[in-house]
Design a protein that fits this description.
The complex is a heterodimer of chains A (228) and B (223). With 228 residues, chain A is an alpha+beta fold. Chain A has helices at 11-19, 24-36, 38-56, 69-80, 109-115, and strands at 97-100, 103-106, 122-124, 127-131, 138-145, 149-150, 159-166, 169-171, 174-176, 181-184, 193-194, 200-207. Chain A is built from 5 helices and 12 strands. Chain B has 2 domains: 8-148, RNA polymerase sigma factor, region 2, helix turn helix motif (Rna Polymerase Sigma Factor, Chain: A, Orthogonal Bundle), CATH 1.10.1740.10; 159-222, Winged helix-like DNA-binding domain superfamily/Winged helix DNA-binding domain (Arc Repressor Mutant, subunit A), CATH 1.10.10. Chain B is 64% helix and 0% strand. Chain B has helices spanning 14-23, 30-35, 40-51, 54-76, 79-96, 107-126, 135-139, 165-169, 173-184, 189-196, 200-222. The relative contact order of chain B is 0.10. The chains are: A alpha+beta (228), B mainly alpha (223). At the A-B interface, helix 1, helix 2, helix 3, helix 4 and helix 5 of A face helix 1, helix 4, helix 5, helix 6 and helix 7 of B. The structure holds zinc ion. Residues 5, 8, 33, 37, 39-40 of chain A line the site of zinc ion.
C-alpha cells in the first residue's frame, strides 16, 4: 500500500489559503498539508501565479478617492532612502523535535515555531492533546494517539479537521498517512483508531459551526481518494 | 490619474526628476503597457537587487503602487489600511529584491504574495493576535526563503540584458568562464566544479565576485 498523501483539501480551500482569506487555524492546517504534499504545492504555485496576474491586471482607476501623486512620491522616496537588507542573517531555527508519550517526532516546517508555544499536554489513556495558540471560534491542537489506541467517541458542534503528521490512523472511511487531511462534519459518527504498532501524531482544528454555514461541499475534495 | 514613473531618459536622479513624471504628462497608457516586454518587472527587480537601481524601482513602484492600493481597498474596505499595506509591501520589494527568484515565478506573483502576507499580519495585529500564527508560519516556503547565497543562484534569465551584456564580456576570464557555464549553459555549480576541476567553493566565490563586479559596473555606468 502506498504511503503517499491521498486526502487533499479542495481547490476552493486552497484558493482561500492562497489569497489569505482563510482563518489562521485552518490556514495552518493547509500549510502543514503542503509541507507533505508536492501535488498541492504545485497547485498553490499555480493559484498564486493567477492571483499575481490578477493584481497586475487590476485597473487602478476603480479607486474611489484620488491620491495626489505627491503622496506617492513621498512614499517612494521614503522607501528608497531605506537601506536594502544586508546578507540574510540566519534566523534562530525553532526546535523541529517534539517529545510526547516517550516518543520523538519530527515536526513539519509550518508547525515548528507555533508548536513551541503549545500549552501543556493533557493525557488520558493513550491519548494526549496540547492546545496551540488559537482563538475562538477555532481550536488548534496537537493530538497524540499511542499505538493500538482508539480515540474515544467525542462530540463537537463544529467541523473537525485533522491532519496526520506521523504514524497512521484508520476510520470507517479509510486509512490515513502523514499529510492526509480528514474533514468531519458534526454529524459524522466516525471513530478514528490507531491500529498500528507506531504512535500517531496529528494536528487537529475544531471550528464553531457558524464558520462553515455555507456548506461542507465547498470544502471537500471530490477526488478525496484520488491516487496519483 | 494612473501614476507611472518610467522615465529612464530623464537621468539618474529620481528624487527630483521623478517629480516631473508624477505631475507631468509622462504617463503610460494601457495600450503602451501591452506592448511592453514580458519579463520587464523581473528585469526591474534584478536591477534593484544588483545595483539598487532607483529608476527600475520607480517603474515597479509606479505600476504596482496604484494597483496594490486598489487591491487593498477591496480587501480592507478603507484607504488608510490599504495605503499602509501598499507601503509595507513596496518596502519589502525594495529591501528584498535579491530574494526574488525569477525561476520560481513572475514578479507579479512575488509581489502579490508579499502583499498577501503583509495584509494577513496587519489583520492579526489588529486582532492583537500577532504573537501566534503569522504569515511566516503559513507561507514561509513562500517559496522565497532567505537562501544562504541567493545571489549566486539567480538571474539566469536576466543577466544577459542589454544593460549587462557589455559588462559581462569585461569580466576576468576565470569568472566569465564560470558565469557562462552556470548562466548560459545552465550547468549546476557542482557540474562546473567537476568540468573545470576546481572546488565547488571556488565556483561559488567566482560567481559572487563576478556579480559584485557587474553590480559595480552598473553603478558606474549610471553615474
Ligand atoms: Zn495535497
Amino acid at each position: 500500500m502506498t504511503q503517499s498523501v491521498n486526502h487533499h483539501p479542495s481547490i476552493s480551500l486552497l484558493e482561500l489559503y492562497c489569497d489569505g482569506s482563510l482563518n489562521a487555524e485552518v490556514a495552518l492546517l493547509i500549510a502543514t498539508h503542503l509541507d507533505y504534499c508536492p501535488h498541492c504545492q504545485q497547485l498553490r504555485r499555480d493559484i498564486e501565479t493567477d492571483l499575481g496576474a490578477e493584481l497586475a491586471a487590476t485597473n487602478p482607476a476603480t479607486s474611489v478617492t484620488e491620491v495626489h501623486s505627491t503622496d506617492w512620491l513621498e512614499m517612494m522616496n521614503k522607501i528608497t532612502a531605506t537601506p536594502q537588507l544586508p546578507q540574510a542573517t540566519p534566523a534562530v531555527q525553532p526546535d523541529s523535535q517534539l517529545s510526547i508519550g516517550g516518543y520523538q517526532f519530527e515536526l513539519p516546517r509550518s508547525l515548528r515555531r507555533i508548536a513551541g508555544k503549545r500549552s501543556k499536554w493533557l493525557s488520558m489513556g493513550g491519548i494526549a492533546t496540547a492546545r496551540l495558540p488559537s482563538g475562538e471560534p477555532h481550536h488548534a491542537s496537537l493530538l497524540f494517539i499511542d499505538k493500538q489506541t482508539d480515540v474515544p467517541l467525542h462530540t463537537h458542534q463544529g467541523l473537525e479537521m485533522t491532519l496526520v503528521l506521523s504514524g497512521e490512523m484508520v476510520d470507517e472511511n479509510g486509512r490515513y498517512v502523514p499529510g492526509d487531511l480528514i474533514i468531519n462534519s458534526p454529524d459524522d459518527t466516525h471513530k478514528p483508531r490507531n491500529i498500528s504498532d507506531e504512535p500517531c501524531l496529528c494536528l487537529s482544528v475544531l471550528s464553531a459551526p457558524l464558520q462553515f454555514k455555507e456548506g461542507l461541499t465547498r470544502w471537500l475534495n471530490p477526488l478525496q481518494r484520488f491516487f496519483y | 490619474m494612473d501614476l507611472v514613473m518610467t522615465a529612464r531618459h530623464h537621468g539618474p536622479e529620481p528624487s527630483t526628476q521623478g517629480m516631473h513624471d508624477l505631475t507631468g504628462t509622462d504617463t503610460l497608457t494601457g495600450t503602451e503597457l501591452k506592448t511592453r516586454d514580458v519579463g520587464q518587472w523581473e528585469q526591474a527587480l534584478a536591477l534593484v537587487a544588483l545595483s539598487r537601481d532607483k529608476q527600475a524601482y520607480q517603474e515597479l513602484f509606479g505600476y504596482f503602487a496604484p494597483r496594490l492600493r486598489a487591491f487593498g481597498i477591496k480587501m480592507f474596505g478603507n484607504e488608510q489600511q490599504a495605503l499602509e499595506m501598499v507601503q509595507d509591501t513596496l518596502l519589502n520589494v525594495w529591501q528584498k529584491a535579491a530574494l526574488f527568484d525569477p525561476n520560481r515565478g513572475c514578479a507579479s506573483t512575488w509581489i502579490f504574495t508579499i502583499a498577501r502576507n503583509v495584509r494577513f499580519d496587519m489583520l492579526r495585529k489588529k486582532q492583537s493576535r500577532k504573537d501566534d500564527i503569522s504569515a511566516d508560519d503559513l507561507w514561509a516556503d513562500g517559496d522565497y526563503p532567505e537562501a544562504e547565497d541567493h545571489q549566486t543562484q539567480k538571474w539566469e534569465l536576466w543577466l544577459i540584458t542589454e544593460k549587462l551584456a557589455p559588462h559581462f564580456a569585461a569580466l576576468p576570464p576565470a569568472q566569465r568562464l564560470v558565469m557562462e557555464k552556470v548562466y548560459l549553459e545552465e550547468m549546476s555549480h557542482q557540474e562546473v566544479a567537476e568540468l573545470l576541476g576546481i572546488p565547488l567553493g571556488t565556483v561559488k566565490s567566482r560567481i559572487r565576485l563576478a556579480l559584485d563586479r557587474l553590480r559595480e559596473a552598473l553603478d558606474d555606468s549610471e553615474r
